[in-house]
Design a protein that fits this description.
The protein is of the alpha+beta class and 70 residues long. 50% of the residues lie in helices and 24% in strands. The longest helix has 14 residues.
Length: 70
Protein backbone atom coordinates (compact mmCIF):
# COMPACT_ATOMS: atom_id res chain seq x y z
CA UNK A 1 0.00 0.00 0.00
CA UNK A 2 1.36 3.43 -0.86
CA UNK A 3 -0.25 5.27 2.03
CA UNK A 4 1.93 8.16 3.14
CA UNK A 5 2.47 9.18 6.74
CA UNK A 6 3.14 12.82 7.60
CA UNK A 7 3.65 13.15 11.30
CA UNK A 8 1.17 10.81 12.93
CA UNK A 9 -1.66 11.21 10.43
CA UNK A 10 -1.89 8.79 7.51
CA UNK A 11 -2.92 10.20 4.15
CA UNK A 12 -4.70 8.16 1.50
CA UNK A 13 -4.55 8.67 -2.24
CA UNK A 14 -7.80 9.15 -4.09
CA UNK A 15 -7.71 5.52 -5.24
CA UNK A 16 -7.08 4.21 -1.72
CA UNK A 17 -9.91 6.33 -0.33
CA UNK A 18 -12.24 5.21 -3.13
CA UNK A 19 -11.40 1.57 -2.41
CA UNK A 20 -12.18 1.98 1.29
CA UNK A 21 -15.41 3.84 0.58
CA UNK A 22 -16.38 1.40 -2.18
CA UNK A 23 -17.02 4.18 -4.67
CA UNK A 24 -15.37 5.08 -7.97
CA UNK A 25 -12.50 7.55 -8.03
CA UNK A 26 -14.65 9.81 -10.23
CA UNK A 27 -17.21 9.98 -7.41
CA UNK A 28 -14.56 11.31 -5.03
CA UNK A 29 -13.49 13.91 -7.61
CA UNK A 30 -17.12 14.99 -7.98
CA UNK A 31 -17.57 15.24 -4.21
CA UNK A 32 -14.29 17.18 -3.89
CA UNK A 33 -15.30 19.71 -6.54
CA UNK A 34 -18.33 20.79 -4.47
CA UNK A 35 -17.16 19.88 -0.97
CA UNK A 36 -17.10 23.49 0.33
CA UNK A 37 -20.80 23.83 -0.55
CA UNK A 38 -22.34 20.36 -0.14
CA UNK A 39 -19.96 18.57 2.28
CA UNK A 40 -20.39 15.19 0.58
CA UNK A 41 -17.81 12.57 1.42
CA UNK A 42 -14.72 12.94 3.58
CA UNK A 43 -12.89 16.27 3.43
CA UNK A 44 -10.40 16.38 0.54
CA UNK A 45 -7.00 18.10 0.85
CA UNK A 46 -4.99 19.43 -2.07
CA UNK A 47 -1.35 18.43 -2.12
CA UNK A 48 0.13 20.63 -4.80
CA UNK A 49 -1.87 21.85 -7.74
CA UNK A 50 -3.46 18.54 -8.75
CA UNK A 51 -3.12 15.80 -6.15
CA UNK A 52 -5.93 15.12 -3.71
CA UNK A 53 -5.35 13.29 -0.45
CA UNK A 54 -7.67 12.19 2.32
CA UNK A 55 -6.86 11.82 5.99
CA UNK A 56 -7.34 8.20 6.97
CA UNK A 57 -9.19 9.28 10.12
CA UNK A 58 -11.64 11.39 8.05
CA UNK A 59 -12.37 8.44 5.75
CA UNK A 60 -12.86 6.08 8.69
CA UNK A 61 -15.14 8.61 10.43
CA UNK A 62 -17.19 9.06 7.26
CA UNK A 63 -17.60 5.29 6.89
CA UNK A 64 -18.60 4.95 10.55
CA UNK A 65 -21.14 7.79 10.40
CA UNK A 66 -22.78 6.39 7.28
CA UNK A 67 -22.83 2.79 8.41
CA UNK A 68 -24.88 3.77 11.47
CA UNK A 69 -27.53 5.47 9.33
CA UNK A 70 -27.86 2.66 6.79
Amino acid sequence: MSTRSFGRERWLTTQEAADRLRVKRKTLYNWASTWDVEYRGPKPYRMGSRALRYRESDVDEYIESHSRTA
